[in-house]
C-alpha cells in the first residue's frame, strides 16, 4: 500500500527495544505484532505516574496541542481538528461473526473484511510517533473479578486522558500477570509522519473506523482523537464490549449515572439513571438538592455495571475514574460540584473557549460572556461574533476523586444496591416529568421505547427525535432484541429484588418553547416522589402509561411561582400525543425483527394501546 512505500517500515526488532513493564506473554506478542504493522518510532509502556503525566503534558504543550491554564493548577486547554469533535456513529461498527448478532441498530461488517481493510489503514500509521501501551482496570482493582483493558495508542492526548478516566499504570501492570484476560484496544489517530515532517496540533485522519469484535473482545479504533472514539475504556469497552460480557455472564453494562440520596430522615437510597449523551447524566449525578435536608452524593456519572448481590439486589459499580463531561451549560448555578471539581485542577479541556486571563470559558459558565475570547476554532471571538465560543460538545476531563459530592463508597468493589432506575430523554412534548412503571416488564417496555432528540455528542443532525432504547442505541454490542430479552430475564433470577423503573423528562416545553420544569437541583423534587413511592407513601394517578404524581404529591415548596403554574402541563399525559407516539413506537418495533423482539414486549405495547383506547 502507499503508506508502506512512503514510510519505510523500520527495524522489526523494535518491540524488543522497548523496556516492557510486563511479562504477560499475550501482551508482549500483541505489542510486537502491532509495532511491526504500525511502525512507530518508539514504544513506551505507561506507568501512570505523575512524572509521566508531566512529561506527556509538556510534550503536548511543546507541540502546540495543549495550552497550560495559568488560572487552574496542572490544567490544559486544547482544540481539536474541527472535523473531530464528537462520536461518529456512522463510522462505528459491531463486527460480530454473524450479521444477525449485531442487530438492526448497528453497522455491521464481516470481522475478516474489517480486519483486512483496517490492517491496511494501520500499516505504517504510527510512523514518526510513539506507541504508548496503557494497562487499565475498569472499576476498583480490588473487585472480585476485575476487568482489564490494554490500550495501544499513538496519541499523547489519549494517554493523558486515560490517566484521568481509568485506573491505570503500575498498579494494573502488577496485577496483569501470566494469562490474565484483558480487552485488546488498538487506537491510532492515523496520521503517520514522514522523516522531518512537522506534526499538527490535533493529528487525525478523514477516514475513521470505530470497530468492535465482540467474540474476541477486541476494539480497533482508527482516525479520531475524540474522547468517545479514542478513550477506548469508555463507550467502546465499558458499554459495547461489556454489554456482550454482561449478556454472557448474567449482568448489565449500562449507560447510567449512579447517585446516592439521603433524606432528611437519614434514609439512604442509591439510584441509577440512563439518559442519552448530553441529556443530563453528569448533572443529575452531581445534583445539589434544592429541598432542605436532602443530600446527594456522586457514585458515577456515565456508566454503571450492575451485578446481582447475594441478597438478590442489583449492585452498581462505576467502572471509570474520571468525568468526561459536556462543558456548555455547566456553571455555578446549574452544577457547582462540576465547577469545584475542575477548579481543583489536573484537568483537560477540549474545544472550549480560552480567556484573556488564561482560563477556559463556555456558554453557560457565566451569565455574561467575557468581552474577548479565543474560540474553539482558535479564532478571535467577541459577543458580537454570532457563533458559540465553545463547541456545543466541548468537554472537561477531570478526576472523580476531586468532586466535592463524591460518595465515599464510589470506589467500593462491591458496588451500591440500586433501589430505582430512571430512564429519560430530551422530549419537547408527550413524555411527562415522571411516570412510574407498573412492574418490571412494563418498565423494560418503557425503556425499550425510550426516545430523545439527538444532541451534539454525536456527529450529525441535532434535535431529531429518535428511539434510543435504554439510552444504549449507539452503545449496544449485540442485537437489540436479545438485549431486551436479557433485561426481561433479570426478573426470572431466583430471589431477584429488582429496582422500580421510572421514566422522566426534564426537557418538556411549552408551546412557546420554554422548559416547563427548572431541572438541575430541582430534580430532587421528582426523585423524592419516586423514593416515597418505593415505600408506598406518595399519591399517584394511574394513567395509561404508568403512575404519574398528582400535582399535590410533588414537594414544590420554594419552587418559583412561574414553574408552579406549569406543573400541570409538565405532568400531563395527553392521549392525542400518545396516539401519535404509538405510531412511531410501532415503526421502531417493526425494525427489530419479529423473531427477536420478545413477545412480552409486544404484549406490553398491545396493552398500552388498549389502555389508551379506553382512556
Ligand atoms: P450527559 O452527557 O448525559 O452527562 O449530560 P450532561 O449532564 O452533561 O448535560 C448535557 C446538557 O444538558 C448540559 O448543557 C446541561 O446543562 C443540560 N442539562 C442537564 N440537566 C438538565 C436539566 O435538568 N434541565 C435542563 N434544562 N438542562 C439540563
Ligand atoms: P456523554 O458521553 O455525552 O454521555 O457524556 C461521551 C461521549 O459522547 O463520548
Ligand atoms: Mn456526561
TrEMBL record:
All copies of domain Phosphoenolpyruvate carboxykinase C-terminal P-loop, residue ranges: 251-609
EC number assigned by the record: 4.1.1.32
Keywords: Cytoplasm, Decarboxylase, Gluconeogenesis, GTP-binding, Kinase, Lyase, Manganese, Metal-binding, Nucleotide-binding, Pyruvate, Transferase
Cofactor(s) this protein cannot do without: Mn(2+)
GO molecular function list: GTP binding; kinase activity; manganese ion binding; phosphoenolpyruvate carboxykinase (GTP) activity
Annotated active site: 279
The record's free-text note on cofactor binding: Binds 1 Mn(2+) ion per subunit.
Boundaries of every Phosphoenolpyruvate carboxykinase GTP-utilising N-terminal domain copy: 30-247
Protein name, entry field: Phosphoenolpyruvate carboxykinase [GTP]
